[in-house]
Specification:
Helix content is about 35%, strand content about 25%. By secondary structure, it is α+β, with helices and mostly antiparallel strands.
Length: about 280
């Protein structure tokens, strides 16, 4: 076993090609699983990308906000640079406890592909792109296509997440992240919702929401259905929207909650998120 610490993205990609190591950043999920699979920890090389400069930077352009994959949850909620994406900040602030937040990276939260991953839900609402780097070059994949199921992504062998890109239209727009859990943010989500609304209280221009922990991966409505967010959000229209999201969900029953309870929470939290934002418009 070797612990590899590249100092540049090019060095990291070279090591990926030469040694096929397991990529690690914060390791808050990876090492828990490795303890259960001790053979993997003993016989696998590890590529620590936390100190790769290209992966720790954030850059805003006219096109949007690009966040390095190694940026931590604590950096997201603690830095003014991310005030333009408050829903992501809210999600980052409840990823485990503060000890976890100091290590857990945005790229790792996406790569882990848990249906209950908190920071993935705002990214899904933002229609974020995952920017990948490998020996054959770079490519961008919409987050909806990158995560294909629980713990499953389209990340190729010897490829890593370099950054995550949020389109400009999602920046500095009213937005909120809410979640339901059992132990005041130290447990994983039972249901979570991220909502973005643009417009006035009596006339919404557009809206988009994503739901987490209620399907194999975070989900959004199709573009035709999402048009229901436009206009005045009356009680009747909010009821219709919450019903759409609840019906679209496909939750599981586990030790934290039943599928029926989760489905009911989806509709409840869509309405709570909408009411929270409408009051502030």
């Amino acid at each position: 076993m070797a612990w590899l610490q590249p100092r540049s993205l090019s060095e990291a990609l070279e090591l990926l090609q030469e040694r096929s190591p397991r990529i690690v950043c914060g390791g808050t999920d990876l090492f828990v699983n490795a303890q259960r699979k001790s053979y993997e920890a003993k016989h696998t090389d590890w590529l620590d990308i936390r100190r790769v400069p290209e992966l720790t930077k954030t850059r805003r352009t006219e096109a949007g906000l690009e966040i390095g994959a190694a940026v931590t949850a604590a950096e997201i909620w603690g830095s003014d640079a991310f005030n333009v994406v408050p829903a992501l900040q809210q999600a980052a602030r409840i990823v485990g406890g503060w000890q976890i937040q100091n290590r857990a990276s945005l790229g790792g939260n996406v790569a882990n592909a848990s249906p209950a991953a908190d920071m993935v839900v705002p990214l899904a609402a933002y229609r974020a792109e995952i920017r990948l780097a490998g020996a054959e070059g770079t490519r961008s994949v919409p987050i909806a296509d990158f995560i294909s199921g629980p713990k499953v992504t389209v990340l190729r062998e010897r490829e890593l997440i370099a950054s995550l890109f949020i389109p400009a239209r999602m920046l500095e727009v009213p937005q909120v992240f809410l979640r339901h859990d059992q132990r005041a943010a130290t447990d994983i989500s039972i249901v979570s919702v991220a909502l973005v609304l643009q417009g006035r209280k009596d006339e919404i221009e557009w809206g988009t929401a994503a739901v987490g922990a209620a399907a194999p991966k975070p989900f959004v409505l199709d573009s035709e259905e999402e048009r229901l967010w436009a206009g005045e959000l009356s009680a009747a229209k909010l009821g219709e929207l919450s019903g759409l999201y609840a019906r679209r969900s496909s939750p599981i029953t586990d030790v934290r909650a039943s599928a029926e309870y989760r489905r009911a929470l989806v509709g409840t939290y869509i309405q709570r998120a909408a009411n929270a934002l409408i009051e502030g418009l």
